[in-house]
Amino acid sequence: MAIDPDRAFTPVSIAVLTVSDSRTAAEDTSGDILADRIERAGHRLSHRTIVRDDAADIARQLDAWIADPQVDAVISTGGTGLTGRDVTPEALERVCKDHDGRDIPGFGELFRWLSYKSIGTSTIQSRACAIVAGGTYIFALPGSNGAVKDGWDGILAEQLDSRNRPCNFVELFPRLREK
């Protein structure tokens, strides 16, 4: 990480969304990992919830957080695989369209590259993705603990740190709603 010690750290308000038909709060280990890493990095955990694997339910929750001025970014875990119930990328696509947002293709590409180092060619089954919609960043990670660690430690910890050089997501916040 290229941290510039002369720059001020700006905490980001992050919501964590676990997408699952079977997990409860007591069993949400990937959500626990994200919440812990968010807070240890000095950011604010603004919200945390679990929704079922349903594109409309996921989109509805994301829409609510986009409308909430206390949420700068959302990190979801789960629902990015290839099965019929894995619909998180479709929900993000809907939210992106509804909010005149933008896809962040490099996120999924980099995630799969990092994940390849951990799980080899099995990473091809991941549809990890990211968008910016309504001025809010939304990152969709797979539901495994390893994937959450790869996504946070390898990408998001740096890009959500305002001191990261040569650039980071935080410095773009003031311009995300430009037309």
From TrEMBL:
Record pathway: Cofactor biosynthesis; molybdopterin biosynthesis
One biological process term in Gene Ontology: Mo-molybdopterin cofactor biosynthetic process
SMART domains: MoCF_biosynth
Keyword match Protease: no
GO cellular component: cytosol
Stretches assigned to the MoaB/Mog domain: 15-163
Annotated keywords: Molybdenum cofactor biosynthesis
InterPro entries the UniProt entry points to: MoaB, MoaB/Mog-like_dom_sf, MoaB/Mog_dom, MoaB_proteobac
Family from the record: Belongs to the MoaB/Mog family.
Function: May be involved in the biosynthesis of molybdopterin.
Protein name: Molybdenum cofactor biosynthesis protein B
Organism of provenance: Pelagerythrobacter marensis
